[in-house]
Amino acid sequence: EAKQEVMEFVEFLQNPAHFRKLGARIPRGALLVGPPGTGKTLLARATAGEASVPFFSTSGSDFIEMYAGVGPARVRDLFKEARKNAPCIVFLDEIDAVGRKRGKGSMKGGNDERENTLNQLLVEMDGFDTGSGVVVLAGTNRPDILDPALLRPGRFDRQISIDKPDIASRREIFMVHLKNLVLSPELESDEGDLEVAFASISADQATSAASEQIKTESDSSASSTSSSSSTSSTEQKTQKQSAATEAASSSTAATSDTESRPAWWPSGGDSDMPSYLKSITNMDVFGLLKRDESQSSHEEQQQANAKASQAEAESDAPPTPKELLMERYAKRLAALSPGFSGADIANVCNEGALIAVREGCSHITLSHLEKALDRVIAGIERKSRVLSPEEKERVAYHESGHAIVGWMLEHTHPLLKVSIVPRGTAALGYAQYLPKDQYLYTKEQLFEMCMMALGGRVAEEIKYGRVSTGASDDLNRVTKIAYSFCSQYGFSDRIGPLSFRQPEQGQISKRPYSEATARAIDEEVRKMVQDALEKTRALLGSHKDHLENLTSLLLDKEVLSREQVAEVLGPRPHEVHDRALDFYDQATSANNNNNKKQKTNASTSGGAADRPDASSSSGSPLDLNPTPA
Fold first, then answer.
1. Which spans in 261-284 are helix H?
2. 3-state SS string over 47-68?
3. Fewest Cβ atoms nearer than 10 Å: which of 65, 161, 310, 608?
4. pLDDT at 36 over 50
5. In angstroms, rounded to a whole number, what is the distance separating the alpha carbons of residues 368 and 600?
6. What is the pLDDT of residue 622?
């Protein structure tokens, strides 16, 4: 949707008459709003590239100076230069640096340079003619603090929201960044299957092309047979028409030569012409100029046709084996990176390349990219942090409790990975899930999210009879969900369908309700958390054997994938497949088939026995807020 709105500016700059014919005018400006890293600046640059117009880019902080009058002068110079090069695009990045609401944080009793700069920007944006072809784009992630005069129609007529990409968009972004990477020839997949797929695609396209060629030849032979019978009867008519055409063309050429001559040319023709002009006429300068113009336009048309045919051929060409492998990579990585922005995806690809270089590899494999995902989400692996056997066992029980509760409940996200490898600054272990692109949550989903977060604390309580501080982050999440459940979403029967939004961290605001309502909210929150705690105890109490088996396996492997957890717990009772899980399962099944094939080849060739490797069998982090111990 954002691309479609921005393309309207491109069409206006390329063909403004099409809009003016219907009485429409292009918006004078557009504000690109979105989280950091979603590509607001790249989208503005792509707009200028598609429109083939000059692009002026600056940031809001460039206008802020301590000297009076410097900021407004820079604004005037920018728009003056833009009008000279119209049609063009002016992009103001981080406009909130200069476009904040006036009257807040201003200097008392002195000159406020920021407000003067904003006033000059308002005048320039509403002062130039819309027909000049100057389009103003601006980017910000804080539209709530901008001045209302800046957002009114006539300056920024529309706000274009650029959100984080969904799973399909993430796959396309990964395809772009994977092109620049030197991927492994095997790519941990069955290359033979890819060759077969590539050969089948090529064969199908070759068959269709051959059938079209046969059809064209048959049509041409039929047309030639029918035309040969009528050639003798129309030959005389053709000769007469050609003679008439030559006469008309000669008269037209004479007329065009006369029309192409400038206004100062003698009206009497060549007889009244001075001698120095006769020599020019003999050279046929005007004819040469006309021929050059027609030749250049013909060459431009040929180049445009060549580009169009090349683009069509590329779209019709079968995908190469590398493109097929990149597609498989992109699907898996897109499923493993929910909530990632374009900048995060570029960072993951770059981190994967750095890890491959650090390990001395000549190619980048899937394990390198999955390690990069772990690095970006959960932090760097802390190999120097050595836990005592007692602490390591407690962390293993804690993470096993999270995994079992999330596996058995219906409305929780699919589990992908459980790890007791310390990462980052505080996480001693984590369980990672595969959340889908979801925007609405029900009462049952929020309640089971609280149960899953309490699973680690309950597992420690069942095993040791006492709890530790490892569940502090889990309790923080449960408290936030419970207060939103009762006071914001209207899910509490006692509070009713009322919404009291909680103040954000660092904000001081007066509560819009009485002490009695506050006491009722606290009681409802405590009741809800206690209910979730009791149900979690009952669930883990009925799966003590699974808790012991999964903990022992986790202590042995340190990292368990979704398939290894399924071997211990069995199939998930309430498995619901969505697009993200399908992407993950397709890539996982392909890799598993290839691993079996490699093991068979190694055993037949007398190679070394395969040793389980935690790093190669690990999944990838899916939750941007993994459940740490």
1. 275-283
2. HHHHHCCCEEEEEHHHHCCCCC
3. 608
4. yes
5. 24
6. 31
Q: Tell me if the bond preceding 87 is cis, omega within 30° of 0.
A: yes
Residues facing 134 on adjacent strands: 88
CB atoms within 10 A of CB 386: 9
Task: List pLDDT tens digits, range 102-134.
Answer: 876 554 444 567 788 888 888 888 755 555 678
pTM: 0.67
- The C-alpha atoms of residue 528 and residue 534 are separated, in whole angstroms, by 10
Contact yes or no for 328/613 (Cβ under 8 A)? no
| Nearest-angstrom CA–CA distance, 138 and 59 | 9
Q: Give yes or no for residue 431 having a pLDDT over 60.
A: yes
Beta-strand runs (E) in 237-311: none
Name every residue whose Cβ is closer than 8 Å to that of residue 335 and which is 6 or more positions away in sequence.
167, 434, 580, 581, 583, 584, 587, 622
Residue 273 — φ and ψ, nearest 5°?
-85, 135
For residues 269-300, one letter each, b for 16 or more C-beta atoms within 10 angstroms of the residue's C-beta and e for the rest, the string is eeeeeeeeeeeeeeeeebeeeeeeeeeeeeee
Query: In the beta sheet, which residues pair with residue 92?
Result: 58, 138
- Give percent of the chain above pLDDT 90: 23
Q: How far is CA 172 from CA 169, 227, 286, 342, in A?
A: 5, 52, 53, 10
Pairing of strands 430-433, 627-628: antiparallel
Question: Is the backbone of residue 575 left (phi > 0), alpha (psi -120 to 50) or beta?
Answer: beta
Residue type for position 66: M
Mean pLDDT value across residues 422-433: 80
What does the pLDDT read at residue 61?
A: 80
pLDDT digits (tens, 9 = 90+) for 478-524: 999 999 999 999 999 999 998 887 766 655 566 778 889 999 999 99
Does residue 250 contact residue 220 with C-beta atoms inside 8 Å? no
DSSP 122-181: HHHHHHS-GGG-EEEEEEES-GGGB-HHHHSTTTS-EEEE-----HHHHHHHHHHHHTTS
In angstroms, the CA 140 to CA 149 distance is: 16
**Residue corresponding to tokens 């000049």:** 132
Secondary structure class of 425 (helix, strand, coil): coil
Set 113, 393, 399, 460: catalytic member:
399
How many Cα atoms occupy the beta-carbon half-sphere of 541 within 13 Å? Answer: 8
Q: What is the pLDDT of residue 40?
A: 86
Active site residue 212: no
Q: What is the pLDDT of residue 131?
A: 52
Cα dihedral value 34, 144, 29, 111, nearest 10 = -130
Q: Both tokens of residue 366? A: 């899937």
Confidence of residue 346 (pLDDT cuts 50, 70, 90): very high
Look at residue 174 in the predicted model and tell me its pLDDT. 93
Instruction: State how far the Cα of 453 lies from the Cα of 399, in Å rounded to an integer.
Output: 10
Tell me the average pLDDT of the chain: 74
Tokens of 102: 């006036």
Angle between helices 366-378 and 321-335 (to 10 degrees): 30
Which of 346, 347, 343, 350 is closest to 364 using CA atoms?
A: 350
Q: What are the CA-CA distances from residue 571 to residues 107, 335, 548, 559, 567 (Å)?
A: 65, 21, 18, 19, 8
Q: How would you class 20 by CB atoms within 10 Å of its CB: exposed for 0-12, middle for 13-18, buried for 19 or more?
A: middle
Q: How many CB atoms lie within 10 A of CB 537?
A: 17
Cα of first residue to Cα of last residue in the chain, in angstroms, is 40
Of 375, 369, 371, residue with least CA distance to 328: 369
Q: At 51, is the pLDDT very low, low, confident or very high (cuts 50, 70, 90)?
A: confident
